[in-house]
Every structure is written in structure tokens, then in C-alpha cells.
């Protein structure tokens, strides 16, 4: 999504569709066609106004707007497996591509030959690279992989990066050198992000844990937060001490660090009170319906827990991507629908804070329809997470923005700045723009 009123998306095929907001209506203005297979990732640079795309066809294109037309430039990645993720560097003079070939491509523009060149970081990953994230210094690159590890590499390229930009690393660090390998997770790892200052690294594992690492280097300081929900897919720093995590459960989670630097879960994002349907019998049946579904899905038997289906949130499936909103706050989105806020406190300790975007439900106006809907959702909600709570409300009655997996989250602004607005897109074919001006607790 461009910071203005233009949005780019891939409708799960080999095309990029660009829409412009005209008189409060979205109009399709461009269709970019060049890839042979589905586009897996894209990134739109804020300053240079270039779009980079990566695809399962193992190629990448850089799109430049010239005379009202988007002109593609092929980037040969030299991959024998699909390109999975792509991201521009903070200075937008490089971009990184993670792949299923166990390699990461660092691409830069070669002025003399007028083309984009790729250099490969080889033989470090033992499986597919699931995400990449640039350090604010434009040199360090963090990656996660399905081999269960998070790694940080040097991407210094002579003639592209200035020598003083290596001040955060060893003076003799070469391209592709492994700075640190983090073996904190016993499962697949996803969604790595740096804090706005670059002092903290956060990533998530498929074991329902989120990891925070300070002083990335030979002797990093690491801590993890375990949560009871389904695994996360991505995280986003909203500020230096707050992070939002999103994943396979429908509710964004907020983590924050206290004054000692200890990270912990704080709350779900955007929670609100339930709206009663006014039907005693419908409510009773709903509670039984949800409880049955929840216990069958996760085998829980906890009278105090609350399920994502009862919170009235936006997302209802896996949340996959995250976004830095500020130096210590992060927002994430994904398959089950609710952005999650994570934050770091004054000690640098990260924790979940809350969910984002919950709102009151809109009544259907039909007594019998309302009773049946409430019963159905209640049954589904409790069966999803094994609840036993007579006062819960289900998400089916809330009227949410997304109705399926949210697979992308993008900031509306430049790297290194406070994030006040971001966009999400999902498998329901919808794009939503979020404004955090009313979420005052997400900012320092």
C-alpha cells in the first residue's frame, strides 16, 4: 500500500492490481502482468516509488513508474525453488528475497550495466526462508526459516553501502557472514522484525512462543513469552517497547516490556463488551454450542478462559504479517483475523498488550435469525478453544472487517518513523486501512 490513496495487491494469481481512491470509491488503474506463477510477496518503496515482486516462478521484478506506465525490470535470482518473501532495505538501494531454495538473495542496482544484480547468501539455512527483515543500519538482515532458527547476516556490498554504515558490525565483516544464529525455538520460525532503533529483535515460533533478543551479536540477551493461544505468524513493533503479534488464532495479541525490560503478554487488541441478543433460550443454546466446539478443537476445560470467538474482533483466522508502528510497538495480522499489539517497556522487555479493532455488533433485527446465529456462533466459539464460560459473546455477532485469513500487513509511512496507519489484506478479498489515532496506549 502506498502512503497516498493508491493500493497494490495480488488477487492470488500472477498479477498485481493497483487501485486508486477516487471520490470515496476504489478504481482499478493498473494491472501489472509479467510473472508466470503466483506472486508470493511484494513491497512498495515509500521514497523511490518502486514496487518489487517475488513469485513462485523463481524470478523477481522491479516496477518503475515512467510516463504513467509501470515498466518492469527482471531480476534474475538464480533460484531453483520459489521466491517466498521480499523486502526493500531502509535506504531502498537493496532488497532481500527469501526462498524455498535455502538461500537469501540480496539484490542491488548496478548503474554501469543498468540492471539489478543479485548476490546469494548460501549454505547457512537448512530449509526454506520464511521471512526477512532489515536492520535500520541497512546492513544487517535477519531471517527466519523452517529449520527452526533465526539468523542475522551482514549484507555489506562494496560500492553500494558506505563504510561508516558498518559501524554496528565488526569492521572486517564481509557479505554473507553469519553474525549470530539463534536456536531458541524447537519448531518452525516466522515473522522476524527489528525494533525501530534496531536494538531489539523479535520473532515467533510454531510452538506458541514469541522471542525477544537484545544486544544481537556474539552474546545476545534473549527471553521468550509463552502464550496459550495458537501459534503466531508475524509480529510488528508499534514502538520500542510494544509489539503486536498475529497468527493462527483470530486475535491480535499485545506484548509489552516493563521498566526492567521483562516482556509479557498484556492483552488482546480491541476487546469490547458483548452485545446481548435479548434471547434467553438463544443465549443458552449458543453457550452450549461454542463450548462443545472449543473443547473438541483443543481439549480445554477452563472456566476462566475467553475465546477469540467471543471477543468481537476483526480477524477470525491465522495472522501472518506484522508491522512496526513505533520504536517499541508492533502490530501483526494473519489467517484468523485480529491484529495483535506487542510492546516493550522501559526495560526493553516485550509482552503482548491487546487485540486491535474490536467493535460492537450490529443486530440483524430478526428474533429467530438472531437466536439461531447466536447459538451457532456460541457453539463454534467454545468448540474452537474449549471454553466453559456462560457470559461470553461470539465473534459471529460482531460484524467484522475481514472474514478470512489476513496474509499481509503494510505500514503507511517510511522506515524508522512512528506508524499511525497501516493496511491489511486477506483471503476474503478485502483490504482495510487501520488508523491508530484512537489507540493512545500503543504510543509512548
TrEMBL record:
The molecular function GO annotations come to: actin filament binding
Task: Tell me where the WD repeats sit in this chain.
Answer: 32-73, 122-154
Where does this one sit in the cell? Cytoplasm, Cytoskeleton
Coiled coil regions in record: none
Q: Name one GO cellular component term.
A: Arp2/3 protein complex
Show the PROSITE patterns listed in the entry. WD_REPEATS_1, WD_REPEATS_2, WD_REPEATS_REGION
Gene3D superfamilies according to UniProt: YVTN repeat-like/Quinoprotein amine dehydrogenase
Q: Which InterPro entries match?
A: ARPC1, WD40/YVTN_repeat-like_dom_sf, WD40_repeat_CS, WD40_repeat_dom_sf, WD40_rpt
Key word Cytoplasm present: yes
What GO biological process term is on the record, naming one? Arp2/3 complex-mediated actin nucleation
Q: What is its main location?
A: cytoplasm
Q: What does this protein do?
A: Functions as a component of the Arp2/3 complex which is involved in regulation of actin polymerization and together with an activating nucleation-promoting factor (NPF) mediates the formation of branched actin networks. Arp2/3 complex plays a critical role in the control of cell morphogenesis via the modulation of cell polarity development.
Binding partners and assembly: Component of the Arp2/3 complex composed of ARP2, ARP3, ARPC1/p41-ARC, ARPC2/p34-ARC, ARPC3/p21-ARC, ARPC4/p20-ARC and ARPC5/p16-ARC.
The UniProt entry's sequence similarity note says:
Belongs to the WD repeat ARPC1 family.
Quote the protein name from its UniProt record: Actin-related protein C1
Amino acid at each position: 500500500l502506498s502512503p497516498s490513496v493508491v493500493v497494490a495487491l495480488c488477487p492470488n494469481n500472477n498479477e498485481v492490481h493497483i487501485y486508486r481512491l477516487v471520490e470515496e470509491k476504489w478504481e482499478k488503474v493498473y494491472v501489472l502482468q509479467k510473472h508466470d506463477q503466483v506472486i508470493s510477496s511484494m513491497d512498495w518503496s515509500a521514497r523511490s516509488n518502486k514496487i518489487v515482486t517475488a513469485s513462485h516462478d523463481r524470478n523477481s521484478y522491479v516496477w518503475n513508474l515512467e510516463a504513467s506506465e509501470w515498466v518492469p525490470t527482471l531480476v534474475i535470482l538464480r533460484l531453483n525453488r520459489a521466491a517466498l518473501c521480499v523486502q526493500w532495505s531502509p535506504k531502498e538501494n537493496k532488497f532481500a528475497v527469501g526462498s524455498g531454495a535455502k538461500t537469501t538473495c540480496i539484490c542491488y542496482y548496478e548503474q554501469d550495466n543498468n540492471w539489478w544484480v543479485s548476490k546469494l547468501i548460501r549454505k547457512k539455512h537448512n530449509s526454506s526462508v520464511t521471512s526477512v527483515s532489515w536492520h535500520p543500519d541497512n546492513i544487517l538482515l535477519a531471517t527466519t526459516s523452517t529449520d527452526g532458527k533465526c539468523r542475522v547476516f551482514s549484507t555489506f556490498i562494496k560500492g553500494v553501502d558506505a563504510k561508516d554504515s558498518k559501524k554496528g558490525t565488526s569492521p572486517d565483516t564481509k557479505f554473507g557472514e553469519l553474525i549470530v544464529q539463534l536456536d531458541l525455538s524447537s519448531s518452525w520460525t516466522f515473522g522476524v522484525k527489528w525494533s525501530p532503533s534496531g536494538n531489539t529483535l523479535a520473532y515467533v515460533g510454531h510452538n506458541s512462543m514469541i522471542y525477544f533478543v537484545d544486544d544481537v551479536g556474539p552474546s545476545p540477551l534473549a527471553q521468550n513469552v509463552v502464550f496459550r493461544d495458537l501459534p503466531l505468524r508475524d509480529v510488528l513493533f508499534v514502538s520500542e517497547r510494544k509489539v503486536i503479534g498475529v497468527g493462527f488464532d483470530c486475535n491480535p495479541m499485545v506484548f509489552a516490556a516493563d521498566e526492567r525490560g521483562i516482556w509479557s503478554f498484556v492483552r488482546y487488541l480491541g476487546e469490547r463488551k458483548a452485545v446481548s441478543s435479548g434471547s434467553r433460550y438463544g443465549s443458552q443454546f449458543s453457550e452450549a454450542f461454542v463450548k462443545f466446539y472449543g473443547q473438541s478443537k483443543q481439549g480445554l476445560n477452563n472456566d476462566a478462559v475467553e475465546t477469540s470467538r467471543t471477543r468481537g474482533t476483526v480477524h477470525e483466522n491465522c495472522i501472518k504479517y506484522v508491522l512496526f508502528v513505533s520504536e517499541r510497538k508492533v502490530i501483526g495480522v494473519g489467517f484468523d483475523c485480529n491484529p495483535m499489539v506487542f510492546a516493550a517497556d522501559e526495560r526493553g522487555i516485550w509482552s503482548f498488550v491487546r487485540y486491535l479493532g474490536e467493535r460492537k455488533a450490529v443486530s440483524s433485527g430478526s428474533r429467530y435469525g438472531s437466536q439461531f446465529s447466536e447459538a451457532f456462533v456460541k457453539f463454534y466459539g467454545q468448540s474452537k478453544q474449549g471454553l466453559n464460560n456462560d457470559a461470553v459473546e461470539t465473534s459471529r455477532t460482531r460484524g467484522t472487517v475481514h472474514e478470512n485469513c489476513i496474509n499481509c500487513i503494510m505500514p503507511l509511512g517510511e522506515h524508522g518513523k512512528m506508524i499511525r496507519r497501516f493496511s491489511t489484506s486477506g483471503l476474503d478479498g478485502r483490504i482495510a486501512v487501520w488508523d491508530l489515532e484512537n489507540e493512545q496506549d500503543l504510543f509512548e
